[in-house]
Structures are given as C-alpha cells and as structure tokens.
Amino acid sequence: MKYKRVLLKLSGEFLGAEDGKGFSPTATESLAREIARARETGVEMGIVVGAGNIWRGTRQGLGMDRATADYIGMLATVMNALALQDALESAGLETRVQTALTITEVAEPYIRRKALRHLEKGRVVIFGGGTGNPFFSTDTAAALRGLEIGADAVLMAKNKVDGVYDSDPRQNPQARRFTELDYLELISRGLQVMDATAVSLCMEAGLPIIVFDIFKPGALLEVLSGEPVGTIIHHKDRR
Ligand code: UDP
Description:
Helices cover 34% and strands 18% of the residues.
C-alpha cells in the first residue's frame, strides 16, 4: 500500500437516503463495506464525518445566531459518528468515536495521543464534533485531524464523482478530469473540492488531498495502493 495511515472525510449526505437526508442503511452498509475492505490491507484510518444530511449551520441555521447554528451542526456530526460506528462495527471493524465537544456518555473526548494509540492497534477512529469551533467546517476538521495523526493523505470522498473536473461532468460531457492539481491551481480555478481554510492547511504542510468516488466498489482500495484513480492535489513541483 502506498499510504499507511489516512484521514478519510465523509460528507454527512453520504449517510443519507437518495435525497441526502437522514440515515439510509443501504448507504451506511456500502460505506462500511468499502472501509472494511481497505482496513484488511492494514491501512490505519481516521474518519471525519460531516452533517449535511441533518444540519448545516449556514443553511438550516439561516436567521439564527451563526455560532449557535454551528454548534447544532457539530452536535449533528456526533450523531453521524455514532451511526457510522454502528455500521462499521456491524462490518466487523473495531472502532472508537472521539469528539471535539465532550459528550462522555456516548464517546471519548478527542485526545490526540489516545487516537494515535487506537490507530496503532488497528481501530478506526471516527472524529465527531468537527473542530469543536463554530465558523469552521468538517473539511477543516479533516485537514486538522489529518495533520495531527500524521496521515499520509486526506481522502476527500465524493458520491458518484470520481475526481476534480474542469467543469461539471453531469452537465458537460466534454468535462475533463484532472489526474493531479497543485493546491494553488485548485484555489485559483475556484474548484469546489473543500473549503479554502482546509486547502490552505493542507498546502502549508504539504499534506496531499485525494478526491475519489467512495461509492465505486474498490475505488478506496485503488487509491490506497497508489493507482491513478481520482485527482491528487499536492505540490506538483516538489515531488
Ligand atoms: N461545524 C462547525 N465547526 C466545525 C465543523 C462543523 O461549526 O469544525 C458545523 C457547521 O455548521 C457545518 C455543520 O457543522 O455546517 C456540518 O458540517 P459540514 O457542513 O462540514 O458537513 P458536510 O458538508 O461535510 O456534510
């Protein structure tokens, strides 16, 4: 495997039904299947999960105090972390949930050194609660936790989009997929892969971001073994 330890970012909508809302057992089962196959290779994995299936501070929280709306969003990611944990354990994986906001009745608090120990023991660590701060996103949480656990890459999972395109492949059949991009290219082209705070964190540390389709069977394994699926975002000139 090319990557020994990764941070996987899953959007909340992936846990939802066709409309991306609520929880869908079919969706969580297929995610769990792909993650279990990846774990069989021995790769260590941390996961940051979003909450788009339940609540986004800037959307559902319109008209509310932004910080309050964001705290609701962070709590929603904890619900998703528990749902994902349930699906992963049903698929036979050992897992731990750690949260950035402490809710010790349901999950461990985020303690970096403890998370590292879990990873070394082969447990999948699901990080709930985002960064624990309003005005941030779970993309930024993914970049942050990825750096903290010493991940070799942040894997930005997408649903039925297998990478970064120069235009929307669902609307333009001529759209071209990038196999690689520089962080600065991603920002200057305004490509919506992850928010700018998250990209700049990764850029500063040279942490590669890989965009791929998690629902395509075997794609996660291909990414981990270094096959050129999806799009890799890195320092192009520093390889
Ligand atoms: N959120 C936050 N701080 C964080 C992470 C998340 O305030 O560090 C809130 C924010 O309101 C966000 C919501 O939680 O809209 C859900 O996260 P996100 O939108 O990133 O989820 P995704 O789009 O990945 O499902």
